[in-house]
Amino acid sequence: MTKIGFVRHGSTAWNKERRAQGSADIPLDEDGIIQANKLAERLSMENWDVIYSSDLLRARQTAEIISERMGNKQIVLEPRIREVSGGQIEGTIESERIAKWGHNWRELDLGMEDVESVIKRTLPFIQEIQEKHENRNILIVSHGACIQCLIQVLVPQVEFEGHLENTSITELNKTSNGWTCNLYNCAKHLDS
Fold it and tell me: Are 15 and 177 in contact (CB under 8 A)?
């Protein structure tokens, strides 16, 4: 059985300000580093064979903290699992978007990446690593919207609600019958 653990990166200043990050290269903030360390402690007690990470700084920093706790396990940087691009809205908060483009800004073409484009770049990556690491445990450090798009495609029979928490882990297992989800948006490590 192949297992994939999807990890959302730790928190950033822009997360707290509710700024659209998208493909902007924002670092973890102090809380994000603490979150990543707590997750790394949890994951170090599990068996993960390989770590893939988005090449954006906030995901890469999260992956590096996890890797260090696992004895400096190699990280493979992968641009195909970057966050969904926000186009012109990146770096803005809701009130700024309304002031600039009006209340119906979501209906405008502001260069935001659509779901079909996200799936087109991420699904081949998942298929590649699934074949390359068959019957292994693969950890993928990525971004909330990107992970949610993938989960909706891989496990369409399950409805998932709410946004993914920073440093949450979602686990999917690949069996002969397809993908199943046995853990979703788990952030219990942050309670300690």
Answer: no
Q: What is the pLDDT of residues 92-116, one digit of tens each?
A: 999 999 999 999 999 999 999 999 9
The C-alpha atoms of residue 125 and residue 96 are separated, in whole angstroms, by: 35
Q: pLDDT per residue over 33-54, tens digit each?
A: 999 999 999 999 999 999 999 9
Catalytic residues: 9, 143
